[in-house]
């Protein structure tokens, strides 16, 4: 069995679970479609704790996502495939999706970039963040819009990007200066306890 066949077989294995266990479909639809809003809310909550470490974490996550997305676009030029529902028969397609290049998975890139960065900065909750990212990746297969290879490639790109960015960003003096400048302006708009220097 070659890699392409393995990719399809693993897709079938995961996607067919939705046919066998229909009671789980609504949960996976929510994860696939709406967990991005939960992630955005969490990022805002971390940002407005007004703790410097949390803000460096969010900046690192955002840069890691941008870097991973750029690498993903390059990877998409080197290899492309349509979504499983557009290429295979009898796919359990649970959400609407336009037909285009699905390699690699943008949702997976986003979640692994942020969740891996959160894991690096918050080791106590690291396992939880990785589980969330994994479920998002699996959900994209479950609802029929990505192959396992789309998800795996997106995850690997983001994990590497997150580790590199999280090592570099806290050491960049101009990031500290920009953040300090922002926080000075913020104090005039959102007065309150200053946690910018708390770690």
Our measurement of the CA-to-CA distance between the termini, rounded to an integer number of angstroms, reads 51 Å
Number of strand elements: 0
- Our Rg estimate from Cα atoms comes to 19 Å
The overall pLDDT, averaged over residues, is 93
Low-confidence stretches: none
Count of domain modules? 1
> What is the N-to-C order of secondary-structure elements (H for helix, E for strand)?
HHHHHHHH
The major pleated sheet works out as: none
Question: Helicity level, as a percent range?
Answer: over 70%
Q: What characteristic shape results from the CA principal axes?
A: elongated
Helical element count? 8
Q: SS-based structural class?
A: mainly alpha
Strand proportion, as a percent range, falls in under 5%
Structure description:
- By secondary structure, this protein is mainly α.
- It has one domain (26-189).
- It has helices spanning 3-20, 25-47, 52-78, 84-87, 106-121, 126-142, 148-168, 173-189.
- The radius of gyration is 19 Å and the shape is elongated.
- The mean pLDDT is 93.
- Keywords: Membrane, Transmembrane, Transmembrane helix.
- Residues 61-166 form the Phosphatidic acid phosphatase type 2/haloperoxidase domain.
- This is Bacitracin ABC transporter permease.
- The chain crosses the membrane at residues 28-49, 127-145, 151-169.
């Amino acid at each position: 069995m070659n890699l392409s066949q393995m990719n399809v077989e693993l897709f079938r294995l995961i996607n067919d679970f939705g046919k066998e266990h229909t009671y789980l479909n609504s949960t996976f639809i929510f994860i696939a479609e709406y967990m991005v809003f939960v992630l955005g809310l969490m990022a805002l909550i971390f940002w407005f704790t007004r703790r410097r470490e949390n803000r460096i974490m969010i900046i690192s996550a955002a840069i890691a996502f941008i870097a991973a997305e750029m690498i993903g676009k390059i990877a998409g030029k080197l290899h492309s495939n349509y979504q499983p529902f557009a290429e295979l028969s009898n796919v359990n397609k649970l959400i609407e999706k336009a037909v285009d290049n699905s390699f690699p998975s943008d949702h997976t890139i986003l979640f692994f970039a942020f969740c891996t960065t959160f894991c690096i900065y918050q080791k106590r909750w690291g396992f939880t963040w990785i589980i969330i990212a994994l479920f998002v990746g699996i959900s994209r297969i479950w609802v029929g819009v990505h192959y396992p290879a789309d998800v795996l490639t997106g995850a690997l790109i983001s994990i590497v990007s997150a580790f590199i960015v999280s090592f570099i960003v806290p050491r960049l003096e101009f990031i500290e200066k920009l953040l300090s400048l922002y926080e000075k302006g913020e104090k005039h708009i959102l007065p309150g306890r200053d946690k910018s220097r708390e770690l």
